[in-house]
Amino acid sequence: MRKSHLLSFILIMVFTTFPTLSVLANQTNIRIKYQPKKTETQTSHRAPLNLPIEVLYDSDTLTVTIISALETEAEVYIYNASGELEDSSPCLNTVLTIGESEYHTILIESQDWSARGIF
Is residue 80 a contact partner of residue 55, using CB atoms and an 8 Å limit? Predict the structure, then answer.
């Protein structure tokens, strides 16, 4: 009896997560590098800055989703391969639309730090 309940539970979990896996298959996590902005009184930081920001690129819809738990003000810019601005947002938690290009650069700027990634 317990084995049949366990087996049915596993099958339900597999079949309920399978459709979500196919949706997420076209999303790519973009690696971004963070840099603190130096002030005149600040010494250099030796440890890398880790911020809770996730950037996802969806190749089907040509969108970039920025998800963050930070409550700081930051602006997001996306440039194409020619260096032209494609889309921007004045806040972190946003979805930006991009055009088809060989590669894009994302720039996230805050008062205290900046982040950059290429995809």
Answer: no
Lookup result for tokens 């459709």:
19
- Give the span between the Cα atoms of 74 and 113, in whole angstroms: 9
Per-residue pLDDT reduced to its tens digit, 1-54: 677 766 676 767 666 655 444 445 688 888 888 888 776 665 665 555 677 899
Tell me how far apart the terminal alpha carbons of the chain are, to the nearest angstrom.
Answer: 51
Beta-strand relationship, 74-79 and 85-89: antiparallel
pTM of the model: 0.70
55: helix, coil or strand?
Answer: strand
